[in-house]
Design brief:
Order of helices and strands: EEHHHEEHHHHHHHHHHH
Helix content: 55-70%
Radius of gyration: 28 Å
Oligomer: single chain
Number of domains: 3
CATH topology of the largest domain: Alpha-Beta Plaits
Shape: flat
CATH architecture of the largest domain: 2-Layer Sandwich
Structural class: alpha+beta
Strand order of the largest sheet: 1-2-4-3
Distance between the termini: 63 Å
Length: 371
């Protein structure tokens, strides 16, 4: 690996790296081993075709993209580690050039962790009483944050916003009322189509919500099929006179909805429930993000504060504490501990543990104003 050029401007770091021929040859070998069973070569069983035969049939560049996918992250990660650069968000591969004689060069851009100048964070005075732990903690962190100087990268704000959106979706996805609202909206929309009634999606959602509010409340978050059937017919009859045989149409639409729901993944069901929720509050995902951007920016700023304090105070945590987080996730999700450890990245958990330590440090050293 040779670094051809690098510079940082306006919080964005750009580096151009050359992959030496021997490095790329090694990546090609790895790409061949990982992908040979996916490449069809006449006369050879899956996974048994020699690399030379693959390149003869599909060209010398047949495995170039796969090789690049293997070596670019590895070399770029090595570069970041050796130069102490902390990226924020997802790096962007902006160009790739194949070199004569083998190898390649590529350019990557990424937002970088900003410079943070800590102000006073020990012994900050807090107006709230320490007996009110929640308020005292919030005031202590706000005071320390106001004393800090840092430019929050947009990539950090975007990351926080996506994390907040994911948590909101999970919360909504656990509420049966929004799954029921999604079902009712889907069937009502199809019922209108069957009778050639045009109703904008937002109005269908509003009508479905109104019916849900009238018929479902408290712990009663289910509708019998007969009631479901009755409500759909009543709404359609506001716009069209329908024959008695329309009951069979509704039965079919309800059955089709059931089949579609059974074929959906859990993530798809959550997305649909979240869409139903947004419709109930007259929002879209775009509007939700717009309304929560400042909250995400504040959360990113707090992360900068806590990361800097953890580094300044050289805070640490034990492996037992790390394992406890994995165990907590396992208990919450019902997964086995080994599954959680295999699926959940370790680095974000480590960073959160240090931020938790920093938060506790700031609060522990905060004080009520002297009289």
């Amino acid at each position: 690996m040779i670094i051809l050029a690098s510079h940082t401007e306006n919080g964005v770091h750009t580096v151009e790296i050359r992959i030496e021929p021997q490095e790329f040859w090694k990546a090609l070998e790895e790409a061949y081993i990982e992908n040979t069973d996916k490449i069809v070569v006449p006369g050879y069983a899956a996974g048994l075709a020699p690399r030379a035969e693959i390149e003869k049939l599909y060209g010398e560049t047949a495995l170039f993209d796969e090789a690049l996918d293997l070596c670019v992250p590895k070399l770029y990660g090595q570069y970041l580690s050796e130069h102490g650069i902390r990226p924020v968000g997802r790096p962007q591969l902006t160009s790739v050039t194949w070199m004569e004689g083998g190898g390649a060069r590529f350019t990557v851009r990424c937002d970088v962790y900003p410079e943070v100048k800590l102000g006073a964070y020990q012994g900050v005075e807090v107006k709230a009483s320490c007996e009110d732990k929640e308020m005292f903690t919030a005031e202590a962190l706000l005071a320390a944050c106001r004393n800090m100087e840092a430019e929050v990268p947009q990539a950090m704000v975007s990351q926080k916003l996506e994390a907040m959106l994911a948590r909101e979706k999970m919360k909504i996805g656990q509420d049966a009322i929004y799954h029921l609202l999604a079902d009712f909206t889907a069937v009502l929309e199809e019922a209108y189509k069957e009778t050639d009634v045009y109703r904008p999606k937002a109005q269908v959602q509003a009508e479905a919500l109104d019916v849900m509010l009238q018929t479902v409340s408290g712990d009663n978050k289910e509708l019998s099929q007969d009631k479901f059937h009755e409500l759909i017919r009543e709404l359609v009859e506001h716009y069209r006179i329908v024959p008695r045989s329309f009951d069979e149409t509704i039965d079919r639409l309800i059955a089709e909805r059931g089949e579609k729901k059974r074929a959906m993944t859990d993530d798809e069901k959550i997305e649909e429930a979240f869409e139903a929720y947004l419709g109930s509050v007259e929002q879209t995902v775009g509007l939700w993000k717009e309304n929560n951007t400042e909250r995400a920016r504040d959360a990113a700023r707090f992360d900068l504060l806590l990361n800097a304090v953890a580094e300044q105070e050289q805070l640490t945590f034990s492996e037992a504490e790390l394992m406890q987080v994995y165990q907590d996730i396992a208990d919450e999700t019902g997964l086995e501990l080994e599954e959680v450890m295999a699926q959940v990245e370790e680095q974000p958990i480590r960073e959160q543990l240090l931020r938790d330590k920093a938060r506790a440090f700031i609060v522990e050293h905060a004080k009520e104003p002297t009289v």
